[in-house]
């Protein structure tokens, strides 16, 4: 099977294990070539108070044009945090660089814990909603699901009917499949899958608290698995299991919260020979 190439439209943080710096090594371990399209370069992610950031929005059109001139076409597009509405619009232009039947995996990074992140505006949410309509796989957490659908954040574990209604609304607008991650109940985590009009669930043990970059790890493993032609259910299972294992390793090594998931020593578990 020919090696797959995945374009990664996300920021690049030098320290803290998130975004491109997490996604690239995971895709490589899974046998794919990751192609970075950095939306911004940060010294460290924004949970650190002293981070420095250079926004690359004005550079992205020329960056993408160089790919077009080379005739490059990718097997997948993976998007993550977008710092402004312009980047969401530019992300849509990346679709022109994809092969027919390519995977479009969108992680709509908008918020958590029932609230949008401080930098997220109504305009960014609207642009992300438009971008989500292009997704082959959309990966919101519960907060992001509610923001995309304009629903109030539930006070308790969401009902199956609530999740189905939200997923059906997104798919009616163009999204193909939805995976709602990070649903917690009684010490366990649930990933709710809505694919081909049917609902499914993947459960695993909750270990520790969410960390910066854990969603990027989850998304990267799903993308890498789908590019190996695994089913969406298999891909989510693999991703959830890998994040759980990485969290155990992280806690064992007493890694500070802001430093993210200690996943590097576990990459061999994702290699094709380990399947």
UniProtKB/TrEMBL annotation:
GO terms for biological process: pyridoxal 5'-phosphate salvage. The keyword Nucleotidyltransferase does not apply. Its EC number is 2.7.1.35. It comes from Candidatus Merdibacter merdavium. Gene3D superfamilies: 3.40.1190.20. This is pyridoxal kinase. NCBIfam families: PRK07105.1. Keywords: ATP-binding, Kinase, Nucleotide-binding, Transferase. One of its GO terms (cellular component) is cytosol. It comes from the Bacteria. One of its GO terms (molecular function) is ATP binding. Residues 27-252 form the Pyridoxamine kinase/Phosphomethylpyrimidine kinase domain. It is an enzyme of class 2 (transferase).
């Amino acid at each position: 099977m020919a090696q797959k190439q995945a374009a990664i439209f996300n920021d690049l943080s030098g320290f803290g294990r998130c975004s491109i710096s997490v996604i690239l090594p995971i895709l490589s371990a899974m046998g794919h070539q990751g192609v970075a399209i950095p939306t911004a370069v940060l010294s460290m992610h924004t949970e650190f108070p002293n981070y420095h950031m250079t926004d690359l929005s004005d550079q992205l059109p020329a960056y993408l044009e160089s790919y077009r001139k080379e005739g490059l076409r990718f097997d997948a597009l993976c998007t993550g945090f977008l710092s402004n509405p312009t980047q969401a619009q530019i992300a849509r232009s990346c679709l022109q660089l994809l092969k027919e039947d390519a995977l479009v995996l969108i992680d709509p990074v908008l918020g958590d814990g029932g609230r949008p992140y401080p930098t997220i505006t109504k305009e960014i949410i609207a642009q992300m909603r438009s971008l989500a309509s292009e997704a082959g796989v959309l990966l919101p957490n519960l907060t992001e699901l509610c923001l995309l659908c304009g629903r109030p954040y539930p006070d308790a574990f969401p009902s199956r009917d609530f999740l189905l209604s939200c997923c059906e609304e997104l798919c009616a607008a163009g999204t193909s499949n939805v995976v709602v991650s990070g649903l917690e109940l009684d010490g366990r985590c649930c990933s709710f899958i809505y694919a081909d009009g049917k609902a499914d669930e993947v459960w695993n043990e909750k270990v520790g608290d969410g960390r910066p970059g854990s969603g990027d790890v989850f998304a990267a493993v799903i993308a890498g698995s789908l590019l190996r032609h695994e089913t969406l259910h298999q891909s989510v299972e693999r991703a959830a299991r890998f994040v759980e294992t990485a969290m155990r390793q992280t806690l064992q090594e007493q890694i500070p919260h802001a430093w993210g998931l200690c996943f590097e020593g576990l990459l061999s578990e994702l290699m094709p020979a380990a399947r």
